[in-house]
Protein backbone atom coordinates (compact mmCIF):
# COMPACT_ATOMS: atom_id res chain seq x y z
CA UNK A 1 0.00 0.00 0.00
CA UNK A 2 1.30 3.45 -0.92
CA UNK A 3 -0.22 6.14 1.32
CA UNK A 4 -1.23 9.30 -0.49
CA UNK A 5 -2.58 12.50 0.94
CA UNK A 6 -6.24 13.16 0.24
CA UNK A 7 -5.44 16.84 -0.21
CA UNK A 8 -2.50 16.66 -2.61
CA UNK A 9 -3.07 19.49 -5.07
CA UNK A 10 -3.27 19.21 -8.83
CA UNK A 11 0.00 20.79 -10.07
CA UNK A 12 -0.57 24.22 -11.55
CA UNK A 13 -0.03 25.49 -15.10
CA UNK A 14 3.74 25.68 -15.06
CA UNK A 15 4.42 22.64 -12.91
CA UNK A 16 4.82 19.11 -14.22
CA UNK A 17 1.17 18.22 -14.58
CA UNK A 18 0.42 14.56 -14.90
CA UNK A 19 -2.41 12.20 -14.26
CA UNK A 20 -1.78 9.64 -11.47
CA UNK A 21 1.35 7.89 -10.39
CA UNK A 22 -0.35 4.87 -8.86
CA UNK A 23 -1.63 1.73 -10.57
CA UNK A 24 -5.35 1.37 -11.28
CA UNK A 25 -5.43 -1.84 -9.28
CA UNK A 26 -4.29 0.19 -6.28
CA UNK A 27 -7.21 2.61 -6.33
CA UNK A 28 -8.36 1.15 -3.03
CA UNK A 29 -5.31 2.79 -1.42
CA UNK A 30 -5.33 6.09 -3.30
CA UNK A 31 -7.43 8.01 -0.82
CA UNK A 32 -6.40 7.14 2.69
CA UNK A 33 -7.25 10.15 4.81
CA UNK A 34 -9.70 9.53 7.65
CA UNK A 35 -13.36 10.00 6.80
CA UNK A 36 -14.65 13.46 7.59
CA UNK A 37 -17.63 13.99 9.81
CA UNK A 38 -20.65 16.00 8.76
CA UNK A 39 -19.93 19.73 8.72
CA UNK A 40 -22.28 22.72 8.70
CA UNK A 41 -22.71 24.56 5.41
CA UNK A 42 -24.73 27.64 4.52
CA UNK A 43 -27.30 28.07 1.75
CA UNK A 44 -26.27 28.27 -1.89
CA UNK A 45 -26.17 31.80 -3.32
CA UNK A 46 -27.73 32.85 -6.64
CA UNK A 47 -25.36 31.54 -9.32
CA UNK A 48 -23.21 33.71 -11.57
CA UNK A 49 -21.49 32.96 -14.84
CA UNK A 50 -17.78 32.30 -14.33
CA UNK A 51 -17.15 34.18 -17.59
CA UNK A 52 -20.16 36.40 -18.35
CA UNK A 53 -18.51 38.08 -21.33
CA UNK A 54 -17.55 34.77 -22.91
CA UNK A 55 -13.97 35.96 -23.12
CA UNK A 56 -12.16 32.78 -22.10
CA UNK A 57 -14.03 29.84 -20.53
CA UNK A 58 -17.56 30.28 -21.85
CA UNK A 59 -18.15 30.49 -25.60
CA UNK A 60 -21.13 30.68 -27.98
CA UNK A 61 -20.82 26.88 -28.20
CA UNK A 62 -21.51 24.37 -25.44
CA UNK A 63 -19.39 24.59 -22.30
CA UNK A 64 -20.22 22.36 -19.34
CA UNK A 65 -19.22 19.38 -17.18
CA UNK A 66 -17.25 21.77 -14.88
CA UNK A 67 -15.31 20.44 -11.91
CA UNK A 68 -12.48 21.86 -9.81
CA UNK A 69 -9.25 19.95 -9.38
CA UNK A 70 -8.21 19.34 -5.76
CA UNK A 71 -6.00 22.46 -5.75
CA UNK A 72 -9.01 24.76 -6.28
CA UNK A 73 -7.00 26.64 -8.91
CA UNK A 74 -7.68 24.40 -11.89
CA UNK A 75 -11.06 23.88 -13.53
CA UNK A 76 -11.71 20.95 -15.86
CA UNK A 77 -14.63 21.22 -18.26
CA UNK A 78 -15.94 19.97 -21.59
CA UNK A 79 -16.44 22.21 -24.60
CA UNK A 80 -17.34 22.07 -28.28
CA UNK A 81 -14.90 24.93 -29.06
CA UNK A 82 -11.81 24.26 -31.09
CA UNK A 83 -8.46 26.03 -31.19
CA UNK A 84 -7.51 24.27 -34.41
CA UNK A 85 -9.48 24.51 -37.68
CA UNK A 86 -8.35 20.95 -38.42
CA UNK A 87 -10.24 19.68 -35.36
CA UNK A 88 -13.98 19.10 -35.64
CA UNK A 89 -16.06 20.87 -32.96
CA UNK A 90 -16.83 17.74 -30.99
CA UNK A 91 -16.61 17.56 -27.20
CA UNK A 92 -13.12 17.87 -25.77
CA UNK A 93 -11.78 18.28 -22.25
CA UNK A 94 -10.26 21.67 -21.47
CA UNK A 95 -8.59 23.10 -18.37
CA UNK A 96 -8.73 26.65 -17.00
CA UNK A 97 -6.30 28.12 -14.47
CA UNK A 98 -6.30 30.90 -11.91
CA UNK A 99 -3.77 32.22 -9.41
CA UNK A 100 -6.06 32.15 -6.36
CA UNK A 101 -9.66 31.37 -5.44
CA UNK A 102 -10.67 35.04 -5.38
CA UNK A 103 -9.60 35.92 -8.94
CA UNK A 104 -11.01 35.09 -12.36
CA UNK A 105 -9.91 32.20 -14.53
CA UNK A 106 -7.09 33.59 -16.67
CA UNK A 107 -5.70 30.87 -18.91
CA UNK A 108 -7.05 27.77 -20.66
CA UNK A 109 -5.70 24.83 -22.62
CA UNK A 110 -7.07 21.76 -24.36
CA UNK A 111 -5.77 18.51 -22.91
CA UNK A 112 -3.68 16.65 -25.51
CA UNK A 113 -3.59 13.00 -26.43
CA UNK A 114 -4.09 10.48 -24.99
CA UNK A 115 -6.96 12.13 -23.06
CA UNK A 116 -8.61 13.93 -25.98
CA UNK A 117 -8.93 11.93 -29.17
CA UNK A 118 -10.99 12.05 -32.34
CA UNK A 119 -14.01 10.96 -30.28
CA UNK A 120 -16.06 12.89 -27.72
CA UNK A 121 -14.43 13.37 -24.31
CA UNK A 122 -16.39 14.86 -21.41
CA UNK A 123 -17.34 14.48 -17.70
CA UNK A 124 -13.74 14.89 -16.44
CA UNK A 125 -13.09 14.06 -12.79
CA UNK A 126 -9.62 15.12 -11.55
CA UNK A 127 -8.44 13.29 -8.43
CA UNK A 128 -5.72 13.87 -5.83
CA UNK A 129 -2.28 12.81 -7.00
CA UNK A 130 -2.92 13.97 -10.58
CA UNK A 131 -5.18 11.07 -11.51
CA UNK A 132 -8.04 11.55 -13.90
CA UNK A 133 -11.30 9.80 -14.62
CA UNK A 134 -13.24 10.89 -17.69
CA UNK A 135 -15.78 9.72 -20.26
CA UNK A 136 -15.02 9.01 -23.92
CA UNK A 137 -16.80 7.58 -26.95
CA UNK A 138 -13.53 6.16 -28.36
CA UNK A 139 -13.62 2.51 -29.38
CA UNK A 140 -12.86 0.12 -26.56
CA UNK A 141 -13.03 -3.59 -26.06
CA UNK A 142 -14.27 -5.20 -22.87
CA UNK A 143 -15.04 -8.92 -22.62
CA UNK A 144 -14.35 -9.29 -26.33
CA UNK A 145 -17.03 -6.79 -27.37
CA UNK A 146 -15.93 -3.60 -29.15
CA UNK A 147 -18.19 -0.56 -28.70
CA UNK A 148 -18.09 3.20 -29.22
CA UNK A 149 -20.54 3.99 -26.46
CA UNK A 150 -19.70 6.58 -23.80
CA UNK A 151 -17.54 4.78 -21.24
CA UNK A 152 -15.52 5.69 -18.15
CA UNK A 153 -11.72 5.78 -18.48
CA UNK A 154 -8.85 6.16 -16.03
CA UNK A 155 -5.39 7.54 -16.79
CA UNK A 156 -2.30 8.30 -14.76
CA UNK A 157 1.12 9.86 -15.16
CA UNK A 158 4.14 7.53 -15.12
CA UNK A 159 7.32 9.22 -13.79
CA UNK A 160 9.30 8.01 -16.82
CA UNK A 161 6.85 7.18 -19.60
CA UNK A 162 4.57 10.18 -19.08
CA UNK A 163 0.80 10.07 -19.43
CA UNK A 164 -0.30 6.49 -19.98
CA UNK A 165 -2.95 5.23 -22.35
CA UNK A 166 -6.38 5.61 -20.72
CA UNK A 167 -7.90 2.32 -19.60
CA UNK A 168 -11.59 1.51 -19.80
CA UNK A 169 -13.17 0.45 -16.50
CA UNK A 170 -14.53 -2.74 -18.02
CA UNK A 171 -16.19 -4.02 -14.83
CA UNK A 172 -18.15 -0.77 -14.61
CA UNK A 173 -18.87 0.04 -18.25
CA UNK A 174 -21.63 -1.50 -20.35
CA UNK A 175 -22.45 -1.52 -24.06
CA UNK A 176 -24.53 1.62 -23.48
CA UNK A 177 -23.63 4.98 -21.90
CA UNK A 178 -21.83 5.75 -18.65
CA UNK A 179 -21.52 9.37 -17.50
CA UNK A 180 -19.89 11.40 -14.75
CA UNK A 181 -17.65 9.17 -12.58
CA UNK A 182 -17.39 10.34 -8.95
CA UNK A 183 -14.89 8.55 -6.69
CA UNK A 184 -15.46 8.43 -2.92
CA UNK A 185 -13.24 6.88 -0.25
CA UNK A 186 -14.34 6.94 3.36
CA UNK A 187 -14.42 4.58 6.33
CA UNK A 188 -12.26 2.07 4.45
CA UNK A 189 -14.64 1.79 1.47
CA UNK A 190 -13.94 3.03 -2.08
CA UNK A 191 -17.03 3.71 -4.21
CA UNK A 192 -17.55 4.90 -7.75
CA UNK A 193 -20.82 6.72 -8.50
CA UNK A 194 -21.92 7.30 -12.10
CA UNK A 195 -25.03 7.26 -14.28
CA UNK A 196 -25.92 4.88 -17.10
CA UNK A 197 -28.75 4.12 -19.51
CA UNK A 198 -27.97 0.38 -19.55
CA UNK A 199 -31.53 -0.54 -18.56
CA UNK A 200 -33.37 1.94 -20.78
CA UNK A 201 -31.66 3.81 -23.64
CA UNK A 202 -33.87 6.85 -22.97
CA UNK A 203 -33.26 7.12 -19.22
CA UNK A 204 -30.05 7.46 -17.28
CA UNK A 205 -30.05 6.18 -13.70
CA UNK A 206 -27.51 6.58 -10.89
CA UNK A 207 -25.34 3.58 -10.01
CA UNK A 208 -22.57 2.77 -7.56
CA UNK A 209 -19.75 0.24 -7.73
CA UNK A 210 -17.59 -0.75 -4.75
CA UNK A 211 -13.91 -1.54 -5.14
CA UNK A 212 -13.16 -5.10 -4.01
CA UNK A 213 -10.14 -6.10 -1.94
CA UNK A 214 -8.46 -7.50 -5.05
CA UNK A 215 -8.56 -4.06 -6.71
CA UNK A 216 -11.41 -4.81 -9.12
CA UNK A 217 -14.72 -2.98 -9.28
CA UNK A 218 -17.78 -4.87 -8.12
CA UNK A 219 -20.99 -5.23 -10.10
CA UNK A 220 -22.65 -1.78 -10.29
CA UNK A 221 -25.99 -1.48 -8.52
CA UNK A 222 -28.77 1.07 -8.76
CA UNK A 223 -28.91 3.67 -5.98
CA UNK A 224 -32.64 3.29 -5.54
CA UNK A 225 -33.21 6.21 -3.18
CA UNK A 226 -31.72 8.67 -5.72
CA UNK A 227 -33.57 7.41 -8.79
CA UNK A 228 -37.19 8.22 -9.59
CA UNK A 229 -39.19 5.89 -11.87
CA UNK A 230 -39.67 7.38 -15.32
CA UNK A 231 -37.21 10.23 -14.70
CA UNK A 232 -33.79 10.93 -16.20
CA UNK A 233 -31.36 10.95 -13.23
CA UNK A 234 -27.81 11.57 -14.32
CA UNK A 235 -24.28 12.89 -13.81
CA UNK A 236 -23.76 12.54 -10.03
CA UNK A 237 -20.96 14.20 -8.11
CA UNK A 238 -20.20 13.48 -4.46
CA UNK A 239 -18.61 15.78 -1.89
CA UNK A 240 -15.15 14.84 -0.61
CA UNK A 241 -16.48 13.26 2.61
CA UNK A 242 -19.08 11.17 0.77
CA UNK A 243 -21.99 12.73 2.67
CA UNK A 244 -23.52 14.98 0.00
CA UNK A 245 -24.37 14.25 -3.63
CA UNK A 246 -25.60 16.47 -6.47
CA UNK A 247 -26.95 15.39 -9.85
CA UNK A 248 -29.27 16.56 -12.61
CA UNK A 249 -32.76 15.17 -13.14
CA UNK A 250 -35.86 15.98 -15.18
CA UNK A 251 -38.25 14.70 -12.51
CA UNK A 252 -39.68 18.20 -12.07
CA UNK A 253 -40.27 18.71 -15.78
CA UNK A 254 -37.07 20.56 -16.70
CA UNK A 255 -33.47 19.44 -16.23
CA UNK A 256 -32.70 20.69 -12.72
CA UNK A 257 -30.05 20.12 -10.09
CA UNK A 258 -30.97 17.96 -7.10
CA UNK A 259 -29.12 17.15 -3.91
CA UNK A 260 -29.20 14.52 -1.19
CA UNK A 261 -27.26 13.94 2.03
CA UNK A 262 -26.54 11.13 4.47
CA UNK A 263 -25.05 10.83 7.93
CA UNK A 264 -22.42 8.25 6.98
CA UNK A 265 -21.29 6.35 3.89
CA UNK A 266 -23.04 3.23 5.19
CA UNK A 267 -26.44 4.96 5.41
CA UNK A 268 -28.91 5.44 2.53
CA UNK A 269 -29.24 8.85 0.91
CA UNK A 270 -32.04 11.19 1.96
CA UNK A 271 -34.92 11.96 -0.40
CA UNK A 272 -33.48 14.17 -3.18
CA UNK A 273 -34.60 17.79 -3.19
CA UNK A 274 -34.09 20.48 -5.84
CA UNK A 275 -31.40 23.10 -5.31
CA UNK A 276 -33.86 25.95 -5.79
CA UNK A 277 -31.21 28.66 -5.54
CA UNK A 278 -29.56 27.55 -8.77
CA UNK A 279 -32.34 26.07 -10.90
CA UNK A 280 -33.77 28.36 -13.58
CA UNK A 281 -36.41 26.35 -15.46
CA UNK A 282 -34.06 25.68 -18.37
CA UNK A 283 -31.42 22.98 -18.65
CA UNK A 284 -28.95 22.69 -15.77
CA UNK A 285 -26.52 19.77 -15.90
CA UNK A 286 -23.52 18.00 -14.40
CA UNK A 287 -23.17 19.86 -11.09
CA UNK A 288 -20.03 19.39 -9.01
CA UNK A 289 -19.01 20.44 -5.51
CA UNK A 290 -15.54 21.81 -4.75
CA UNK A 291 -13.49 19.78 -2.30
CA UNK A 292 -14.05 22.32 0.48
CA UNK A 293 -17.80 22.11 -0.17
CA UNK A 294 -18.30 25.85 -0.73
CA UNK A 295 -18.59 26.09 -4.53
CA UNK A 296 -21.17 24.45 -6.79
CA UNK A 297 -20.36 24.45 -10.51
CA UNK A 298 -22.75 23.43 -13.28
CA UNK A 299 -23.60 23.96 -16.93
CA UNK A 300 -26.72 25.88 -17.89
CA UNK A 301 -28.59 26.98 -21.00
CA UNK A 302 -29.95 30.11 -19.25
CA UNK A 303 -29.34 33.48 -20.88
CA UNK A 304 -25.95 34.88 -19.92
CA UNK A 305 -26.42 38.46 -21.08
CA UNK A 306 -25.24 37.70 -24.60
CA UNK A 307 -28.30 35.77 -25.71
CA UNK A 308 -29.50 32.31 -24.80
CA UNK A 309 -27.21 30.50 -27.23
CA UNK A 310 -25.23 27.43 -26.19
CA UNK A 311 -24.54 26.43 -22.59
CA UNK A 312 -22.25 28.23 -20.14
CA UNK A 313 -20.59 27.39 -16.85
CA UNK A 314 -22.01 28.94 -13.67
CA UNK A 315 -21.01 28.80 -10.02
CA UNK A 316 -22.90 29.22 -6.74
CA UNK A 317 -21.24 29.88 -3.36
CA UNK A 318 -22.00 29.02 0.25
CA UNK A 319 -20.27 29.33 3.58
CA UNK A 320 -18.56 26.33 5.09
CA UNK A 321 -16.40 25.25 8.02
CA UNK A 322 -13.99 28.11 8.60
CA UNK A 323 -15.09 29.99 5.48
CA UNK A 324 -17.56 32.84 5.27
CA UNK A 325 -19.79 33.25 2.24
CA UNK A 326 -18.28 35.87 -0.09
Automatic annotation (TrEMBL):
Region (Disordered) location: 265-289
Transmembrane feature ranges: none
Signal peptide span: 1-38
Pfam families: PD40
Protein name (database record): Tol-Pal system beta propeller repeat protein TolB
InterPro entries: 6-blade_b-propeller_TolB-like (IPR011042), WD40 (IPR011659)
Protein species of origin: Luteitalea pratensis
Keywords: Signal
Lineage: Bacteria, Pseudomonadati, Acidobacteriota, Vicinamibacteria, Vicinamibacterales
UniProt entry tagged with the keyword Signal: yes
